[in-house]
């Protein structure tokens, strides 16, 4: 029986994992047929006459059954969801819709973001079909498209009539970057867009309340009460995250602090919080039930107090988990509590792996895409480690430990320290694989933070829902926690950043870390070092000496380019600024470079425009020791000037523009910002790359006329493919084989311009644009090929752009 259950479980997990690896979906009939085959195999397995000789065959049949059922139902659900996609013709047009606010509105510096369930939609007074679930942004006056001042009061559960513009969910695609398209898919978001509320559009109007969104409505009310009472936004955001699960209320700088100190798991609704709540609920319900039974003895006869306490605690824990957003750790905890309670009431006891595995399978049944979430892995692996590496001692051993309060306190502290050390060590390779960093101070931070958050901060915050002045005490506790973490984060090597290893190497290291903490003989435990060491020593492959590669990151409407040699790297531009507190440097450039193991030796910012220099502050903060060159700073030592050149590993870097004559006596550029763009040529004597920011056609032509001998196999499209750049003279001089266009999806400038693409096509130049390609990699040792990250990492939830007749497909042969 045990092996059969394990086989079915493994098949189920493998079925989900295999379906999530698909690059494209099959027709629904295929998934339906496979699911039906799984049902038939389940019936055959049930009818199987089990004998010792046939046990292996039955296990194989059950494994295939689980695989077919999981693969079929996950695929069928995916097809049903994909059929609700936004029609391409409805992108970028005004649509009047009625719908219900289906999430907590998230207020940013200049925008309000919320999700909406659609009831009806009109486009040009014609009924149109939209995806059922949207994500919308409402901009402040002057801060976004068609904005009209401050927003009205909008709450979850309200029905609104709005004029919106929508687009298909499409985001950036970079190595080890955040997959926002997958997140949209997991949330069921079929289209994204913004509210149009200018004088030319129908006024936004609240038209009523939706009765089926009471939980989110109450969550919003509680969150608003927290922010109204606690005036420090950092503290209020932390309390909102702990009480209602609104993690968006936490500032991005605070998330960095929590990750650096290894306590990010504590500021979300973790399994520990739900378990504590359930324990308190069990005590409270049991106490009330026994008191009521004194007045109505029939209650005790109908249900004993112990059972009533268990069921009551489970129901209240479920309610708390739902109220707090129903995240994966909360789901796992509620399901495991339900299994433990059910088994106890039936007088049965399962081994912990069976309960753990059943909860994992149930989570994947409810939400197969949870398999791809970091929280899923950290939550389930941490629980498994605690059960496997720290088995519970029998009661006799505990009694022999002594009954003195001091000794019991010491034992409790030692148990907490041992548990935290075990989990920290065992999860380190997994954290490295998922995030590219390991918190060195995490053990010390959690030693205080776990009891402080669990026993002080969270209870005060929850009681504050009923008695608001408890939030004042919770705020003081939160401020103390933040001060402690801030002090630890200032330590040298508080967190170690390492290149993200390949999946197989990371999983082997996770297995090795598990061996190290298991209660087994030392000879077996030290074997774990064999599996862990490759991750610690691993260095990503680099170009050979004399070769180089160019990686054009996908940052939307902006530019950020990495040039790598055998032992050095240069970052050209730092990406755009997305808002007052968000930029590509923080969200894309720094995380991607750290995941790739890059530490830029030189950062060159072509010019001051925010789509090129928007992430400069974040990049400088991450690598303060890097050499800095730009065309707009007052520091002469950091100025890019024509004639500057250096050689790394046999590769020549040469600055071609601007010259000294383009600066006045005060160091201010004499030309426009675009015309002052630093222009860099990288060459190994055989192949060359040309990077010129937003340089205009006049300056391009001047450079080409002055240096007619210049050639470049690769051209990064000047000014994102604008019609004011990529002059015929430049193209005829450089004779590039490839052009990389960095531009945003459906950007308002129309980049790349059709006439520029036609100019490339006439000359036989192949090109790729970042919306279709994602991050693009070109290598000097293989100059005829460009590798697109969007193609390498493609999954069925990713938006695939329709093929353009003017574009040539990335690859050796062009065309297509």
Short key terms for the protein model shown above:
single chain, about 800 residues, alpha+beta, OB fold (Dihydrolipoamide Acetyltransferase, E2P), Metallo-beta-lactamase, Chain A, 7-stranded mixed β-sheet, 28 helices, about 45% helix, globular, disordered C terminus
Short description:
The protein is α+β, with helices and mostly antiparallel strands and 816 residues long. 46% of the residues lie in helices and 15% in strands.
Overview of the structural elements:
This protein is an alpha+beta fold. 46% of the residues lie in helices and 15% in strands. Strands 17-16-13-12-11-25-26 form a 7-stranded mixed beta sheet. It has a 7-stranded mixed beta sheet with strand order 18-19-20-21-22-23-24. The protein has a 5-stranded mixed beta barrel with strand order 1-3-5-7-6. Helix 8 (271-295) packs across helix 10 (305-323), helix 10 packs antiparallel against helix 11 and helix 12 (352-366) packs antiparallel against helix 13 (374-389). Mean pLDDT is 88; it is low at 144-149, 394-402 and 805-816.
Global morphology:
globular
Strand order of the largest sheet: 17-16-13-12-11-25-26
Radius of gyration in whole Å, from Cα? 30 Å
Strand content: 15-25%
Major beta sheet, specifics? Answer: 7 strands, mixed
CATH classification class of the domain at 549-792: Alpha Beta
Helix segment tally: 28
Mean pLDDT: 88
CATH superfamily of the domain at 549-792: Ribonuclease Z/Hydroxyacylglutathione hydrolase-like
How much helix is in the residues? Answer: 40-55%
Supply the CATH architecture of the domain at 549-792: 4-Layer Sandwich
Number of strands: 26
pLDDT < 50 runs, ≥5 residues = 144-149, 394-402, 805-816
Could you tell me how far the N terminus lies from the C terminus, measured between alpha carbons in angstroms? 54 Å
Per the CATH scheme, the topology name of the domain at 549-792 is Metallo-beta-lactamase, Chain A
Q: SS-based structural class?
A: alpha+beta
Organism: Hydrogenophaga crassostreae
Membrane topology: Multi-pass membrane protein
Transmembrane segments: 29-46, 266-289, 309-329, 350-366, 372-390, 421-444, 450-471, 500-517, 524-541
Pfam families: Competence (PF03772), DUF4131 (PF13567), Lactamase_B (PF00753)
């Amino acid at each position: 029986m045990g092996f059969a259950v394990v086989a079915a479980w493994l098949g189920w997990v493998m079925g989900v994992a295999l379906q999530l690896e698909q690059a494209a979906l099959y027709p629904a009939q295929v998934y339906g047929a496979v699911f039906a085959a799984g049902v038939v195999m389940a019936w055959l397995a049930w009818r199987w006459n089990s004998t010792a000789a046939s046990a292996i065959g039955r296990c194989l049949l059950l494994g295939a059954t689980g695989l077919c059922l999981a693969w079929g139902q996950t695929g069928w659900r995916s097809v049903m969801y994909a059929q609700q996609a936004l029609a391409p013709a409805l992108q970028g047009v005004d649509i009047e819709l009625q719908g219900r606010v289906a999430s907590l509105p998230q207020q940013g510096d200049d925008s309000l973001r919320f999700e909406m369930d659609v009831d009806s939609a009109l486009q040009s007074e014609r009924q149109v079909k939209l995806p059922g679930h949207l994500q919308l942004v409402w901009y402040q006056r002057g801060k976004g498209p068609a904005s009209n001042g401050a927003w009205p009061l909008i709450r979850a559960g309200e029905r609104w009539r709005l004029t919106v513009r929508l687009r298909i969910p499409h985001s950036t695609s970079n190595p080890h970057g955040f997959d926002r398209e997958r997140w949209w898919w997991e949330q069921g978001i079929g289209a994204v867009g913004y509210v149009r509320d200018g004088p030319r559009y129908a006024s936004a109007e609240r038209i009523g309340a939706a009765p089926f969104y009471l939980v989110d409505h109450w969550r919003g009310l509680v969150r608003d009460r927290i922010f109204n009472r606690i005036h420090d936004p950092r503290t209020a955001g932390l309390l909102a995250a702990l009480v209602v699960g609104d993690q968006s209320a936490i500032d991005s700088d605070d998330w960095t602090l929590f990750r650096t100190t290894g306590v990010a798991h504590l500021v979300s609704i973790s399994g520990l919080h739900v378990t504590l709540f359930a324990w308190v609920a069990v005590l409270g319900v049991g106490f009330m039930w026994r008191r009521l039974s004194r007045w109505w003895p029939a209650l005790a006869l109908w249900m004993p107090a112990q059972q009533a306490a268990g069921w009551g605690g489970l129901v209240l824990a479920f309610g708390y988990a739902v109220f707090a957003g129903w995240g994966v750790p909360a789901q796992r905890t509620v399901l495991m509590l339900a299994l433990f309670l059910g088994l106890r009431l039936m007088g049965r006891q399962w081994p912990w792996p069976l309960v753990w595995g059943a909860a994992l399978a149930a989570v994947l049944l409810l939400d197969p895409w949870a398999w791809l979430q970091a929280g899923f892995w950290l939550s389930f692996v941490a629980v498994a480690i605690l059960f496997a590496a720290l088995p519970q001692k029998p009661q006799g051993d505990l009694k022999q430990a002594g009954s003195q309060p001091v000794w019991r306190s010491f034992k409790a502290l030692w148990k907490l320290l041992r548990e935290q050390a075990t989990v920290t060590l065992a999860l380190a390779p997994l954290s490295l694989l998922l995030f590219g960093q390991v918190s060195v101070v995490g053990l010390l931070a959690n030693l205080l933070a776990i009891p402080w958050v669990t026993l002080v901060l969270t209870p005060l915050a929850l009681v504050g829902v009923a008695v608001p002045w408890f939030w004042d005490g919770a705020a003081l506790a939160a401020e103390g926690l933040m001060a402690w973490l801030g002090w630890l984060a200032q330590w040298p090597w508080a967190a170690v950043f390492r290149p993200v290893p390949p999946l197989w190497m990371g999983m082997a290291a996770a297995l090795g870390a598990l061996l190290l903490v298991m209660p087994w003989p030392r000879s077996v435990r030290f074997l774990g070092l064999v599996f862990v060491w490759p991750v610690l020593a691993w260095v990503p492959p680099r170009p050979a000496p004399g070769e180089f590669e160019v990686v054009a990151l996908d940052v939307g409407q902006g530019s950020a380019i990495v040039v790598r040699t055998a032992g050095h790297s240069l970052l050209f531009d730092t990406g755009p600024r997305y808002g007052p507190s968000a930029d590509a440097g923080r969200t894309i450039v720094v995380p991607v470079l750290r995941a790739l193991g890059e530490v830029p030796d030189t950062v060159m910012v072509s010019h001051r425009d925010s789509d090129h220099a928007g992430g400069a502050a974040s990049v400088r903060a991450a690598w303060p020791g890097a050499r800095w060159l730009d065309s707009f700073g007052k520091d002469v030592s950091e100025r890019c000037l024509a004639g500057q050149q250096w050689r790394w590993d046999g590769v020549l870097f040469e600055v071609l523009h601007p010259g000294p004559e383009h600066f006045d006596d005060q160091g201010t550029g004499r030309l426009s910002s675009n015309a002052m763009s630093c222009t860099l040529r990288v060459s190994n004597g055989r192949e060359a790359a040309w990077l010129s920011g937003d340089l205009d056609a006049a300056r391009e032509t001047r450079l080409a006329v002055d240096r007619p001998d210049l050639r470049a196999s690769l051209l990064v499209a000047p000014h994102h493919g604008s019609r004011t750049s990529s002059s015929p003279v430049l193209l005829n001089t450089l004779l590039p084989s490839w052009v990389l266009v960095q531009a945003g999806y459906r950007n308002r400038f129309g980049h790349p311009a059709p006439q520029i693409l036609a100019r490339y096509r006439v000359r036989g130049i192949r090109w790729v644009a970042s919306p279709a390609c994602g991050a693009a990699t070109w290598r000097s040792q293989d100059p005829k090929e460009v590798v697109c990250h969007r193609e390498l990492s493609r999954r069925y939830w990713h938006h695939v752009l329709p093929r353009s007749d003017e574009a040539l497909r990335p690859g050796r042969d062009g065309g297509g």
